Amino acid sequence: MTGDPIFQDGVDWGDVALMGFKVLLAFVFLLVATMFMVWFERKVNADMTNRIGPNVAGPWGLLQTLADGIKFFFKEDLRPANSDPLVFRLAPYIAAVTAFLSFAVVPVGGVFRDTAGRTGTVTLFGKETYLQVADPPMGVLFLLAMSSVAVYGIMLAGWSSGSKYPLIGSVRASAQAISYEAALGMAVVVVVILAGSLSTHDIVAGQSGGLRTWFLVSSGFVPFIVFLIAATAELNRPPFDLVEAEQELVGGFHTEYSSIRFALFFLAEFMNVITMSAIMVTLFFGGPAGPIFFGLEWLWPSLWFFGKVLVFLFIFVWFRATLPRLRYDQLMHLGWKLLIPLILVWLLFISLKELRATNDWPWYSLVIATVVGAGLITTLMSAALRAGDRAYERELEDS
C-alpha cells in the first residue's frame, strides 16, 4: 500500500503510532498554514491595492483570522426549509477532507541527495521514514481523484440548498471542473512519463539532480503553464471565480450556509490553495530537493519546499489583485479551444520524444510524427467545436 520504509519489515504498534503522529502533524500544519494564508492574502492584496489590510487584531493583524474563526463558531447555524438535510450537512466536510487528503501524499522534506543511500528519508523516533503521511504507488492518481471529488462538495452544496443561486453556482462548478480537469490531468501525465512512476516520492527523487533535472525544464515549460492555469480554475480562484460570483449569484454555491459550515468552505478554499501549490512544487520544481549549504541537513529540504510553496501562494494572490474575472464563454473557450489542444499536442511530443530516446529513432521521425499528430488533433477538435456551435445555434432558432 505504501513505499514508506517503516513498513518494509512488517507493521508494529510503533509504526502505527508514528503514522498517527505524522497525520496529526500534517493536520495541525495545514490548519495553522491556512490561518496564515488568509492573513497573507489580505495583507498582500491590501498592499497591491493601496490599502492597509488587517492591523487591529494582534501585531500586524496576525490574529484576525483567529478572531474570524471564533466568530463563526458562535454564529447561528441556519438550514433552509427546502434543503436536503443530509447532503446539506455533508457537503462542507467533503470539500475540507479532500484538501487534507491531497496534501497527505506530498513529500515536504527529506534529503534526496545522500551518499549513504537514504534517498528522501528522515529519522523520527529512531525509525527511517518519509516526511509525508503516505507514499502510495498510485500517488498521482490519488491526487487527481481527490481533485475530482472536491468538486462534489461544491456541487452538492448548491444542489442541496434548495435555492436557485446556489444551484447555478454548482452547475457552473461542474462545467468548469470538466473543462479544466482534462487539461490538468494531461499536464500531470507528461510528468508521469518523464518520471516513469506514479509515486510522488519517486517524482521528487527524479528531480533531485539540480535545476536542469526539474520537470519544469525537461517538460519544456508548457505543461507547467497549462497546469497553473487549470489549477487556478479548479480552485475557483480569480479570474475563474464564476462559481461564487457575488455580482450575479449573491454568494454562489454557499449562499445558504452560515456559521461553522460556511467556515468549512472558507477553510477548504484556502487549504486547497496551499495543497495545490505544494502539488505544483512536487511535480515541476523538485519538491524539497535543493542544495544543502552547511549543517542541519534535515532542515534545508523542508525550508526549500516551504519557500517554493510561498512563491506560488504569492502568485495566486497576485492573480486575484491583478486580473479581472472572465466571462463564462471566455472561461469555456480558454479551456476547450486553447488549453486542451495545446497540452494534447505537447503530450504527443513528449511521448514521441521518450520513445525516440529508447528506440533510437532518427530525429526527423519525431518532427514528422508531431506535425501529423498536431494536425489531426487540431482538425478533430475544430470539427467537434463547430458541431457544438451549430447545435447551439439550432437550439436558439427553435426557441
Word description of this protein:
- Helix content is 66%, strand content 2%.
- It has 399 residues and is mainly alpha-helical.
- The protein folds into two domains: 5-54 and 66-326, no CATH class; 329-393.
- The chain is globular and about 60 Å long.
- The chain has helices at residues 13-48, 64-74, 85-103, 139-160, 164-195, 200-205, 215-218, 222-234, 246-249, 259-284, 300-322, 328-359, 363-398; strands at 121-124, 127-130.
Brief descriptors of the model:
single chain, 13 helices, 66% helix, 399 residues, mainly alpha
Percentage of β-strand residues:
under 5%
**Count of extended strands:** 2
* Lateral arrangement of strands in the main beta sheet: 1-2
Structural class: mainly alpha
Largest sheet: 2 strands, antiparallel
- Measured as a percent range, the helix fraction is 55-70%
Poorly predicted parts: none
**Quick check: average pLDDT?**
83
What's the domain count? 2
> How would you describe the shape?
globular
Distance between the termini: 55 Å
Please state the CA-atom Rg, rounded to the nearest Å: 23 Å
Number of helices: 13
Order of helices and strands: HHHEEHHHHHHHHHH
